[in-house]
Amino acid sequence: MNAIVENDFLTIAGRQYASRLLVGSGKYRDLAQTRDATLAAGAEIVTVAIRRVNIGQDPNAPSLLDVLPLEEFTILPNTAGCYTAKDAIYTLQMARELLGGRKLVKLEVLGDEKTLFPQMPETLKAAEVLVRDGFDVMVYCSDDPVQARILQEIGCVAVMPLASLIGSGMGILNPWNLSLIIEQATVPVLVDAGVGTASDAAIAMELGCDGVLMNTAIAAAHDPVRMARAMRHAVIAGREACRAGRMPKRFAASPSSPVQGMVT
What we know:
Elements: H1 3-6, E1 10-12, E2 15-17, E3 21-24, H2 31-41, E4 45-49, E5 74-78, H3 85-98, E6 104-107, H4 120-132, E7 136-141, H5 145-154, E8 158-161, H6 175-184, E9 190-192, H7 198-207, E10 211-214, H8 216-219, H9 224-244
Parallel strand pairs: 3-4, 3-10, 4-5, 6-7, 7-8, 9-10
Antiparallel strand pairs: 1-2
Helix pairs in contact: 2-9, 3-4, 4-5, 5-6, 7-9
């Protein structure tokens, strides 16, 4: 089912996107593979680690924008590698200058190098400053409904709870918490981190997520381009299943064929 035909758009900060799959830009073999996988995923939003990927910081080196130009994609700068609010704020202010004043950003403040779990006090501090400064903040956060609600109240345009640890491929470890976040959400909820394969993406969408962001699940696959296509279909299938409304689970069998009027 084509999301464009269905007019089932993901709306973030007032802008509509036909694709609900957001992708990262790291860990690929080269820039050509980055573009091929991004196109196969059908992604319109591509997140970029400003501290690791060149989008103009080094004019003498190849730039990601050479293969993913701003005319074709929404480049979403992120603060991967930042462990304090101060570093994250500075990084996104620099990104805004590099991208000609674009305001949409992804905030992530990490707690430690081993787990890459979000450091929520610093995340909240940075979110408040960035929102006041006019940024449209999408925010990586813990799967804590209270923290997610606070981020909404601060003014973030999307909350992005982790499914499991970044790059782990473990899938959604706490669907109950994720459901609680979705139930109270007034902004889009996108799973960020932990997706390993297509079924993980489909489950996230079936639970009611508005979208999924992933990088390693595609880039670290044996065939990244094929996996990108699989993820594209999984997100669409999960979204359609959510909108269709699944049958109730039962503890007893229920025949598929009617029993009335059976020939005996």
